[in-house]
Amino acid sequence: MPISxxxxxxxxxxxxxxxxxxxxxxxxxxxxxGDFDPAIExxxxxxxxxxxxxxxxxxxxxxxxxxxxxxxxxxxxxxxDGEGWAVAVRLxxxxxxxxxxxxxxxxxxxxxxxTRKAIDLAQxxxxxxxxxxxxxxxxxxxxxxxxxxx
Length: 150
Fold this sequence. Notes:
The chain is α+β, with helices and mostly antiparallel strands and 150 residues long.
């Protein structure tokens, strides 16, 4: 079967692939449902200040407002509510679920494993921010590639 050259078909397939990828990442980021979220509670114990690992420009899809976005990670710390280690992730500036005083924590058996999971969680935060903002590099306003690893 030949591949369609229709630009709208290609764009629709790409948009569906991105939505599927976002749904998978959001599902992976969900923890326990309910009022108590161990990822938020553990992040409260994270050492401060967090380290800025990625700075971006967000342009609101709704009104074109520009906002500085900053992905921040804490240093690894012992999980206060259980075994292993945790690393807190925060995305400052977008007003989403990661834009809180503490963010959310990712967990691992040691500091390196927790950091790897935190990087995945940071990608989820950026994916969620992309639903409300056009993400760009602040220096020259080139589009930010969400498929590129952090």
